[in-house]
# Entry
Amino acid sequence: MKLILSSRHFLAALIALCLICCSVVFIAYYAVYRLVYARDYVMYGKMHSEVAHEVREELLKHRDLKQITFSASDGVKLSGFFFYRPGAKAALLVCHGYRGCKEFMYGFLDMFPDYHILMFDFRAHGQSDGIITSIGCNEYKDVIGAAEYLQHA
# Structure
């Protein structure tokens, strides 16, 4: 009788362990999916992409703005704004954060009036190509491409 009871406990423990493992795998998959695939989200009562479009329309009214595209060092097409300022001291490369876009970096225009400014969208953000963000593993290639653009601008 004791042998049957212990095999039942073993089976129950095995089933519980399987359920826990499946739950951990599901939660980990969901977390990685949410991090890697950027989605549109609500911001100020509107979708993030709608707010970015409105800001982009205002930015395009600047006469010193040039809308550009360039390639990352691995060939991914990136979208950006280059603000050319005559007599600039230097050039700044402005990078947005995770799930951000170049349009929301417009505050730097007034902070640095004596500098050329390049703002761009990382891969899988804003108007740049790409579906998956690697949370930094490949985004350094975007920064290299932007720096190369600045060297030739």
